Amino acid sequence: MMKALRFLAVSVVGIGVLCGSAPSAAPAANIKVGAAMNLTGPASTWGQYHAKGHQDYFRYVNEIKGGVAGRQLELILVDTAYKVPEAVSAVRKFAQQDKVDMIATWSAGEGMNAKPIIKRYGIPAINYSTAWEILEPPIDFMYLPFGSYRLDCYAILDYVKAVHKGGEPPKFGLLTYNNAYGRSIHKPSVEYAKEVNVDIVAIEEFPPKTVDVTTEMLRLKEKGAEYVFMQLLPAAIISAFKSADRLGYDPLFLGTWTSTDPDFFKMGKGLIRDRLKMQFPGGLPVDGTPGVKILTDLWERYGTVDSFDTAYWEGVVVAMIMERA
């Protein structure tokens, strides 16, 4: 009997020790996302508002939705200053040191140069710039948030064809940077122009640091371009408007939506007038869609912006895609 009691006592103590020493469940690890964005380089307000939209939506998911399956979203943000080497270095750090689950790259050139690292480590990545070349082989683990610049070119050429008056084909010119971003509209425009009978009379390109584009605008004027399709950042578009005014040249200017940023309309006041058409693939406040309602909720909740902005919109969109992934 005494042996039985001693055995029972030892058993109870043993169970108590086991129960007392049982570790509590470890908190679920964060879902880490590395974002290499232009925060201080040319057109950095565009990148800054991308980052703000991305940050606000992740905050919304963490605070309002409790994260993703109980895991918090963690954004590791690095400034590339619109420099390819900085972006490549950041992506390598995300993969090797931070061990991120997903990556966001920013410009066309940055995204294309980061592709080998992304493929090597097998980390899904979304590029903010929608350059179609991003999806050229190899494309393992590389994604765009929506249609590429190729589709933007189709939309703009279709618009020109629809509004053009007269029996002759529209005379169309391209004005772009001489980098990956600028040249991303060259090939698709040339190919599709042949299909829709639009005459591309000139392709003018220049380095991103160029301040005065009067020479390029003069050549477009001399070639008789009635429509000028731009793949430029805001400061260069403003320069093009000023050069056109000095030359007495009045074409219809067209651009992809990535040509605008929060500073563009301030800089262009009195210069934009009624000569610019911008293509945009997203929802607008007047649409009243569920996505737009989330945007307005973010404005009211966090106060980062107080009205619709395309850069902030894209930041939210990319963050939403990552949440779903």
The whole-angstrom Rg is 26 Å
Distance between the termini: 63 Å
Number of helices: 12
DSSP strand (E) fraction?
15-25%
Residue share in helices?
A: 40-55%
Could you tell me the CATH topology label of the largest domain.
Rossmann fold
* Whole-number total of structural domains: 2
Low-confidence stretches: 1-22
Strand order of the largest sheet: 2-1-3-4-5
Note the overall shape. globular
Which structural category fits the helices and strands?
Answer: alpha/beta
Number of strands: 10
Question: What this model shows, in words?
Answer:
The chain has 2 domains: 31-146 and 284-324, Rossmann fold (3-Layer(aba) Sandwich); 149-279, Response regulator (Rossmann fold, 3-Layer(aba) Sandwich). Helix 3 (84-98) packs parallel to helix 4 (108-121), helix 5 runs parallel beside helix 7 and helix 8 crosses helix 9. It is of the alpha/beta class and 325 residues long. The protein is built from 12 helices and 10 strands. The strands form 2 sheets. A 5-stranded parallel sheet has the order 2-1-3-4-5, sandwiched between helices. It has a 5-stranded parallel sheet with strand order 7-6-8-9-10, with helices on both faces. The relative contact order is 0.13.
